[in-house]
Each structure stands twice: as structure tokens, then as C-alpha cells.
Amino acid sequence: MRQALKIILVGMPGSGKSTFGKTLAKSLNFAFIDLDQYLEKREGKEIKEIFEEQGEGVFRELETSCLNEVLNQIEGFVLSTGGGTPCFNGNMDLINDHGVSVYLDVSLETIYNRLTKDDAGQRPLFSGMDAGEITLKLKDLLSSRGTYYDQAKIKLSGDDPSTELLLAEMMNYIR
Ligand code: S3P
């Protein structure tokens, strides 16, 4: 049964899904899959290029199709989704039908600091924005997406989520 467990991380861009996901996968000895990387590999294109050349609508269709592939074909993994993945095409229901969803609920301040220190300019949603615009965009995104993230089965609040805490909560889902 443990082999069949699918853990799906959701949350805002910059909430640490990939970093936390890798640590979690390692401690469980599970495969780690990053949906953005899976999509880029499958399509042979960077997400940035897809946004620029084909637009967000096409990206969302590709994202949903990759999500379906991963959830249906691969067993026993930790999946890090893109920030928008649960919020389009009924994807949150799909995620909850297939595994244990976990929302990394990180403060906007931390997200802002990470994104501006890191590579916000490289992320299509924030491209060309200055600091004030990024702040507004983040508030806007969270207010429209929070309702999807809140449907996750487990919510981990705080800037530095603990794998131990999550594993303890997950015992309810492992039989
Ligand atoms: C997006 C987040 C990105 C990526 C794409 C769109 C979003 O992933 O999927 O640029 O809509 O929030 P991260 O959450 O890993 O940055």
C-alpha cells in the first residue's frame, strides 16, 4: 500500500513545494516529480516560451494533461505542482481523487522575499514587474487561489514546514 501512496504538494509560487518535496521524497524513499519539469521535458520547451509563444490558455491545457498522466500512470511519489495547477480545469478534484494533497501555506512576505531574491523575472506570471507590482500580484493570486488550496487534505502552515509533522498527519491516510 505504501508503494501506491501519492503525495501532491500545492501552494503559491515560491512557497517551497520543490524544496520541501525533495526532502519529503528522500525521507520516504519515494520518487520526486516536479510537474513543471515534467511538462518542459514532455513538450521540449521551457514554460516561459510556452507562455510567450502560445499563451497561458495553452499552458493550462498542457499542465492538466501532464497532471493526468502523472496521477494515472505513476505509483508512489511526491509530486510538486505549479502554483496554478489546482486552480484550473477541475484539477483540485482530480488531485484529491488520486492522493493526499498537502497545501504549503507560507506567508506572502516570505514568498515575496524568496521571489525577489530569486528569479521572479524568470517566472512568466511576474515577468517585467517591479517590486510593487509583484506584491499586488501575489495578493491578487492568493485571494483567487486560496479557495482551491484550502481544499487540500492537509494544510501545513509556516515558513519552514516540518516533514515529521506532515508524516504524523499522514498516518491517517496510510492504512
Ligand atoms: C505558475 C507557477 C509556476 C509555473 C507557471 C505558472 C502559476 O510554478 O507552473 O509559471 O500559475 O502560479 P511554481 O509554482 O513552481 O513557480
From TrEMBL:
Record bears the keyword tRNA-binding: no
One function term, GO molecular function aspect: kinase activity
EC number, UniProt record: 2.7.1.71
Residues that bind substrate: 36, 60, 83, 145
Reactions mediated catalytically: shikimate + ATP = 3-phosphoshikimate + ADP + H(+)
Class of this enzyme: transferase
Cofactor (UniProt): Mg(2+)
Classification via PANTHER family: SHIKIMATE KINASE, SHIKIMATE KINASE 1, CHLOROPLASTIC
List of residues binding Mg(2+): 18
Keywords: Amino-acid biosynthesis, Aromatic amino acid biosynthesis, ATP-binding, Cytoplasm, Kinase, Magnesium, Metal-binding, Nucleotide-binding, Transferase
InterPro entries according to UniProt: P-loop_NTPase (IPR027417), Shikimate/glucono_kinase (IPR031322), Shikimate_kinase/TSH1 (IPR000623)
Family: Belongs to the shikimate kinase family.
Alphabetized HAMAP family for the sequence: Shikimate_kinase (MF_00109)
Broad class of where this protein is predominantly found: cytoplasm
Gene label: aroK
SUPFAM superfamilies named among the record's database cross-references: P-loop containing nucleoside triphosphate hydrolases
Protein name per the record: Shikimate kinase
Protein function: Catalyzes the specific phosphorylation of the 3-hydroxyl group of shikimic acid using ATP as a cosubstrate.
Name of one Pfam family that matches: SKI
Quaternary structure (record): Monomer.
Cofactor: binding details: Binds 1 Mg(2+) ion per subunit.
Residues binding ATP, per UniProt: 14-19, 123
